[in-house]
Amino acid sequence: MTKTNKVDIQRDDMKTPNGDSDKTERFDYDGFWKDLIDRFFYSLLKRAIPELYEAADRETKPRPLDKEFTDILNTADPTIHTSPHFADYVMEVPLKNGDAEWIILHCEAQGHGGGNISERMHHYKCLIYAHYRKEPVALAIITERRPIDEAPYYSHKHYGTESVYRYNNLALSELDDDELIESDNPIDIVLYAAKFAMQTKEELKKFNFLRKTIELLGERGWSLNDKRDLLLFTERIVNIKDEALMVKYSEILRQYKEEGKNMYIPIALRDQADDLLARGMEKGMEKGKLEVARNLLTNGISLDIIVKSTGLPMDQIQSMMN
């Protein structure tokens, strides 16, 4: 996947997708959405702007307009260069008829503190038109519930002059879970995960969600590369932090490997679990084994797996259950 530049959205009052303020949170939400758009651009287009999806020449990759948009932002106003005054992407989409469309994609990943997004979308459109005389297609991806008093379009009226600017909105909170789960569009798996992450912060629920995602991917006829990357994106946005649950998740991945089903399963969390086991051993061979065994027991991992992972005898592990 293409490496993207990180936009500074790390404010002290920044809210996580769960809605709680966390000054230590450093997950790069902006980079996450940029990577996802880059990897599954046409799948996103199919979900959000189906008319443009049908018109697009999908055999040709869209072209990022990095230089053009940098030129547009070459202004003395410093606020335009920084979040929240920043459009994540401006892309040129090739069409089947030989023409091309410019599209603005903006991800609103800052919760309710990001300001009036409709005004910003209008701002981006005006900047592009002023420099290039182009009317771009626009899409806003809303990852938090829109404030009740905020309209999904821009309007301004004074002294008999009126401007109205409507654009495409993809609001996660408005997507139907069952439709996303049953969809044949790969992007919907990650949108489902992003919606879940926005609403849930309980670690056990995160673990169960990832396990369910593995099952969903196993039922799809998508390519192995797509399945691998979709699970990777899902892991990133769900973001399990509980080390014991990471170990348990790692064991599930190992089981898939033994069954010959793991070709599309990334090993990021499995490696973290292996590191956890290694750190436990460094605390003292026996003490480390006991600590790891207790964590595995607490999270319901089978006795056979615990024996294999720690090297402790079965009767000693059984005694820890009493």
Layout of secondary structure:
Blueprint: H1 29-39, H2 41-48, H3 50-55, E1 63-64, H4 66-72, E2 89-94, E3 100-108, H5 117-132, E4 137-142, E5 153-158, E6 161-166, E7 168-171, H6 177-182, H7 187-199, H8 203-219, H9 224-238, H10 243-258, H11 268-282, H12 285-298, H13 303-310, H14 314-319
Parallel strand pairs: 3-4, 4-7
Antiparallel strand pairs: 1-2, 2-3, 5-6
Helix pairs in contact: 7-9, 8-9, 8-10, 10-11, 10-12, 11-12, 12-13
Low-pLDDT residue spans = 1-25, 263-270
**Main sheet: strands, sense, barrel:** 5 strands, mixed
Number of strand segments: 7
The DSSP helix count reads: 14
Q: If strands are numbered along the chain, what order do they take across the biggest sheet? A: 1-2-3-4-7
Order of H and E elements: HHHEHEEHEEEEHHHHHHHHH
Range of strand content: 5-15%
Radius of gyration from CA coordinates: 23 Å
Structural class: alpha/beta
Categorize the overall geometry.
Answer: elongated
| Terminal Cα span | 49 Å
Rounded average pLDDT: 78
Oligomer: single chain
Helix content: 40-55%
Describe this structure in words.
With 322 residues, this protein is of the alpha/beta class. Among the domains are: 29-174; 256-319, no CATH class. It has 14 helices and seven strands. It has helices at residues 29-39, 41-48, 50-55, 66-72, 117-132, 177-182, 187-199, 203-219, 224-238, 243-258, 268-282, 285-298, 303-310, 314-319, and strands spanning 63-64, 89-94, 100-108, 137-142, 153-158, 161-166, 168-171. The longest helix has 17 residues, at 203-219. The relative contact order is 0.08.
